[in-house]
Amino acid sequence: MKLLTLVGAFTLALAASASAQTLTIATVNNGDMVRMQGLSSAFTEETGIELNWVVLEENTLRQNVTTDIATNGGQYDVMTIGTYEAPIWAKQGWLAPLDALTADASYDVDDILPAIRSGLSLDGKLYAAPFYGESSFIMYRKDLMEKAGLTMPEAPTWEFIGEAARAMTDRTADINGICLRGKAGWGENMAFLTAMSNSFGARWFDENWKPQFNTPEWKNTLDTYLSLMADAGPAGASSNGFNENLTLFQQGKCGMWIDATVAASFVTNPTDSTVADKVGFALAPDNGLGKRGNWLWAWSLAIPASSQNAEAAEKFIDWATNKDYLATVAAAEGWANVPPGTRTSLYENADYQAAAPFAKMTLDSINSADPAKPTVKPVPYVGVQFVAIPEFAGMGTNVGQLFSAALAGQMSADDALAQAQDAVTRDMTRAGYIK
Amino acid sequence: MARNVSVQTKIGFTIAAWAIALLLFSPILWVVLTAFKTEAEAIANTPTFLPQNFTLENFGAVQDRSDYFKHAFNSIVVSVGSTLLGLLIGIPAAWAMAFAPTKRTKDVLMWMLSTKMMPAVGVLIPIYLIFRDLRLLDTLQGLTIIMTLINLPIIIWMLYTYFKEIPIDILEAARMDGAELYNEIVHVLIPMALPGIASTLLLNVILAWNEAFWTITLTSGRAGTLTAFISSFSSPQGLFLAKLSAASLLAIAPILLMGWFSQKQLVRGLTFGAVK
């Protein structure tokens, strides 16, 4: 009987009592998000709305919120999603449009950077509000560049990058001319390679959704990447992602690194980086075809259509993404820690420009990416370093594994491209895009 | 009679046992060491073994950002609650199979075990929908129920194995003396099978404590257990290894201590009846 009582006590205990209105917010463990969590008590004081934070690793978050939103589960009131999910989920009717927010003059929706806004909209309606935006650019060691007798232009070509990477490489001193992503995944090496391929005139699909991996443009992209990495890349690059390259760069092992603009504040932070005062920035390279090899991403806040607290949720999104929030962060932690890449007004702010030496380059990189017209030739999809269709995550990861294997020397570039073409053709036929 | 074993063989086996134990323990040791390093040291290209700049700041940062005690409390409720509930169902079931078998008993046992053969994610959507409709999402009750269901086959299998070792004659003697079924199980069977029941209990508490898939998927904050707590410290952009290690160390500490203290009981239970 004792056992029974115990079990009863445990199972019946602790039903959550919710007297005040509570919003459940799902987010990722990135610096800017953690800061928002820290500052959010001001929002609760102001509105009386309690916040329940769910912080998860990016892939776990994606799995959790997708399960919840697809089943109409209603566990979350505000979700942190990216530019990949926003248009797809909006199309499915899973997200509530942010109409009240866009109509509110004090929110000033026109202040949001146009490239970011277009990536989060469907048919002209905004479905997610950007919390911070990023593109990618070149971070390079000014001292090593000088030693190699070269000067980095503000907008270099791939040819220059190849020359500089090889000149900066010093295997005896363990310095690699260039560090690039090699770890397989649609958000890992394929984010970099898809963006790079745009500047080579390549595209994932033609206007009829036919895969394009058998074109000379893709071959040129992959050959350039592989030979660059063979001549000037670090050992074991096929398992390097953002964090691995960040470490290499911070420890002075890379001459150049092309990756997310958000990395700028890490590599220039003297507590973690041994090269903090030697870093220069430049736009991602191009080939003179009118497109640069940089991507566009924005971690954004959206309201699932299943939320019972949509009105309060919109209030929170307003608080977290309006101009006043940027000022709040600046007052508490300085302008260098303000979430970047969402509003034009931030880049016109003299204090911010002084605190963030990479501000202009970040803005130029974001502005030069166009999710609606990402490639040289026309495409039927939206997205710079991804294709905004639900099938892309799986296909992107498959192709990423093939390209990563090519980088590791397990197969040739031609084999990797041929297998990618076959695999993607099969998936697209099965999904009904190719009749 | 004991077999004659040469000193060399003994030394050889001792070294092998230590080597295997250290190998198994090395990831945990690494977590413990990393928890006291700075972020920069934790991810250094030439790894250091002992922390060069010993620091406790990771633990402070972890507690600042997240509520350890809330998650630990949820873990205790779910792991202990689901195990007790499982024993409540498992003991009568194992009794029936061990002492009143039919010709289909073996098939039933196999069928129960077969539920463990499917990857959990295969039933994610149906379970999620059921939980949504019964309003069990993000509740401790819901988690306790799902954890009970997941571990029930193991509980029944373990208990069945222990019960089989107990001579049925003793139970029959109790019946002759007029014991009812309840008294037979509670006052005769359970005391005799106590080591087995204890090790079943301990093992299932550990299994439920470490379960990560359902505890992360079915919760959103309120009912989150320590596995969700650990998961929140991984980051795709930025340094997090030292903080993640500190969070992991905090999460495994209680269960590690429990395992340490109940080691004897656990080993005795797991080898119970192995040699008659």
UniProtKB/TrEMBL annotation, chain A:
Q: Which Pfam families match?
A: SBP_bac_1
Q: Which Gene3D superfamilies match?
A: Periplasmic binding protein-like II
Q: Which UniProt keywords apply?
A: Periplasm, Signal
Q: Where in the cell is it found?
A: Periplasm
Main subcellular localization, coarse class? periplasm
Q: Name one GO cellular component term.
A: periplasmic space
The answer, when asked if Lyase is one of the entry's keywords, is no
Q: Which CDD domains match?
A: PBP2_TMBP_like
- Residues of the signal peptide: 1-20
InterPro entries, A to Z? Bact_solute-bd_prot1 (IPR050490), SBP (IPR006059)
Q: Which family does it belong to?
A: Belongs to the bacterial solute-binding protein 1 family.
What is the protein name given in its UniProt record?
Sorbitol/mannitol transport system substrate-binding protein
UniProtKB/TrEMBL annotation, chain B:
Compartments annotated for it: namely: Cell membrane
Q: Does the keyword tRNA processing apply?
A: no
Q: Where is the ABC transmembrane type-1 domain?
A: 72-262
Q: How does it sit in the membrane?
A: Multi-pass membrane protein
TM helices/strands, residue ranges: 12-33, 72-96, 108-131, 143-163, 184-206, 240-261
Could you confirm whether the keyword Transport appears in this record?
Answer: yes
Q: Name one GO cellular component term.
A: plasma membrane
InterPro entries associated with the record: BP-dep_ABC_trans_perm, MetI-like, MetI-like_sf
Keywords from the UniProt entry: Cell membrane, Membrane, Transmembrane, Transmembrane helix, Transport
Q: Name one GO biological process term.
A: transmembrane transport
The family assignment reads: Belongs to the binding-protein-dependent transport system permease family.
**Xref: PANTHER family:** INNER MEMBRANE ABC TRANSPORTER PERMEASE PROTEIN YCJP, MALTOSE TRANSPORT SYSTEM PERMEASE-RELATED
Q: What is this protein called?
A: Mannitol ABC transporter permease
Q: Which organism is it from?
A: Devosia psychrophila
